[in-house]
Amino acid sequence: RSAITYSATGASHILALSGLHLSIIYLLLTRLTMGRRRFWLTQVLVVLAIWAYALLTGLSVSIMRAATMLTIYSLFALGGRRQSPLGVLSFTAIVLLLTDSSTLFDVGFQLSFMSMLGILLFTPILDRWVSASWMTSHQPIKWLYGLLAVSAAAQLGTAPLVAYYFGRFSTWFLLTNIIAIPAATLILYGALLTLLIPATGSVLLWLAGTLNSGLEQITKLPLACIEGLNPSILQVAMTYVAIAVFGVLLNYWHPQRQTPYYT
Fold this sequence. Notes:
By secondary structure, the protein is mainly α. It has helices at 2-9, 12-15, 19-32, 40-56, 61-79, 85-99, 107-127, 132-136, 139-166, 173-196, 201-219, 233-252; strands spanning 168-170, 225-227. Helix 9 (139-166) crosses helix 10 (173-196).
């Protein structure tokens, strides 16, 4: 039942071993090393830990994508150079496709890369619709807006493919991610803490149960999940064209004209 709940609310990425989990682990390891990104030994240990996790989880496409991207970021950090997120994503795709060209037709590959592409393209555009100085002075709102912006951007990148492959659209995905992503982060951190202090396992179980209960409540909301979608490949392509046009309009018709950081 939990799997159905996660699927209906658009939180399946929390259950699946995905780039989200690896990114959380990378962030934790970076913080544990005091953020000394230029220290080569630190970066080597972090990269080794990332690939050890990838190997242990079976080297799924989304994990491979995240591990490769994080490795490239670490290499740039060692050289003290500014990396281009879109360039890193493109290079990662090339590496994976050169390794196995049939990966292009893997659903996980398509969803993983379209999710990242949506985040890299749309998050900077959405950020320009709010005042950076105001957000800086209101950190809780900045955190919430950032979470919503990333969730919306990822949804724009993957929604047409999800409708094509799975025939559904989760309408409350923003609310889902507000609950699921912080909870998943705490659960991963808590799992590591439980290894050191087993007594904290009960807190971890309570947090997981609370997450499941929260998502079940979302499934009871009106039109929580639209089922029975069956778009053709042409309709999916035209939807992406419409999303691209929407992105261009947002990019030029915003209150603050700034240069996107990804260019």
